């Protein structure tokens, strides 16, 4: 969605205000309309500029009081598109303002799917895995590394997404659909996420029973036999078992308590 240059009322500075305010989109999250108040706050500087008349401004703010929810990192992209549409509504008499909320509602779901897969399902576990590996070596830089790995892409996507959404948002989305890139992003994110979880289950789930077969120097450790069949097999089956419990709806705290109790009992009888 783009506006003709002669109809442009908003500047780069105005779009930057939307970008900065997008970081507070969850500050007033509620279960009725979720991010709607955060969206109003982010868009209010441009709405005040586009609609000097208080009645028109009130109508614009009311438009963005509707239900809104998507991945926070991709909110600025939607806000950028919304800013372009509000600008057209302010400069073109035949523009239908109802299409603004229609576009917002249409983008929430698909972008939430992409954002959740990329940021929550892939980037966060990847950053956490790298930081945890560093933390195991008692490196104090580990938590800062996690924040950097997660937040640098976060901020970049917010900033460029906001400006890209304003300048060519709808055109770019239509192009994505034509090329089938949306489905490819989902697939790539899923593959990377599975690789990260697989790597973390090997490096961070450690199960080493001390049981041995035989005695003396000829004794064979049970863990060596199991790892000979498949390396880290116990770690894999433990991770898959926890995953199955989560899929069945078992509470994470219950699983953690169960792991602690089983670990203590097995250690007490000499398995570990």
How do the helices and strands line up, and which of them pair or pack?
Elements (H helix, E strand, L loop, with lengths): L11 H10 L14 H15 L3 H10 L11 H17 L6 H38 L6 H38 L1 H24 L7 E2 L6 E2 H8 L3 H15 L4 H17 L4
Antiparallel strand pairs: 1-2
Helix pairs in contact: 1-2, 1-6, 2-4, 4-5, 4-6, 5-6, 5-7
What labels would you give this structure?
mainly alpha; 272 residues; 71% helix; 1% strand; single chain; two-stranded antiparallel sheet
Structure description:
The chain is mainly α and 272 residues long. It has two domains: 5-195, no CATH class; 217-268, no CATH class. 71% of the residues lie in helices and 1% in strands. It has helices at residues 12-21, 36-50, 54-63, 75-91, 98-135, 142-179, 181-204, 222-229, 233-247, 252-268; strands at 212-213, 220-221. A two-stranded antiparallel ribbon has the order 1-2. Strand 1 and strand 2 form a beta hairpin. Helix 1 packs antiparallel against helix 2 (36-50), helix 1 packs across helix 6 and helix 5 (98-135) runs parallel beside helix 7 (181-204). The longest helix has 38 residues, at 98-135. The N and C termini lie far apart (62 Å).
């Amino acid at each position: 969605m783009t506006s003709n240059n002669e109809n442009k009322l908003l500047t780069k500075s105005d779009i930057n205000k939307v970008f900065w305010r997008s970081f507070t989109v969850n500050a007033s999250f509620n279960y009725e309309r979720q991010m709607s108040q955060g969206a109003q706050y982010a868009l209010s500087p441009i709405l005040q500029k586009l609609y000097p008349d208080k009645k028109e401004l009130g109508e614009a703010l009311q438009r963005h009081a509707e239900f809104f929810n998507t991945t926070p990192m991709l909110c600025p992209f939607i806000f950028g598109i919304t800013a372009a549409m509000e600008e057209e509504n302010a400069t073109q008499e035949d523009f239908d303002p109802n299409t603004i909320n229609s576009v917002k509602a249409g983008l929430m779901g698909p972008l939430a799917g992409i954002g959740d897969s990329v940021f929550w399902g892939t980037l966060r576990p990847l950053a956490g895995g790298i930081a945890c590996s560093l933390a195991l070596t008692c490196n104090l830089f580990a938590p800062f590394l996690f924040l950097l790995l997660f937040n640098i892409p976060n901020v970049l996507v917010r900033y460029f997404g906001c400006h890209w959404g304003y300048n060519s948002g709808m055109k770019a989305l239509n192009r994505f659909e034509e090329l089938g890139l949306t489905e490819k992003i989902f697939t790539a994110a899923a593959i990377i996420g599975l690789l990260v979880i697989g790597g973390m289950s090997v490096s961070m789930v450690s199960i080493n029973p001390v049981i041995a077969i035989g005695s003396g120097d000829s004794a064979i450790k049970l863990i060596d036999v199991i790892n000979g069949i498949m390396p880290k097999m116990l770690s894999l089956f433990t991770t898959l078992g926890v995953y199955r419990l989560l899929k069945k709806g078992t509470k994470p705290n219950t699983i953690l308590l169960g792991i602690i109790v089983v670990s203590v009992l097995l250690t007490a009888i000499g398995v570990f």
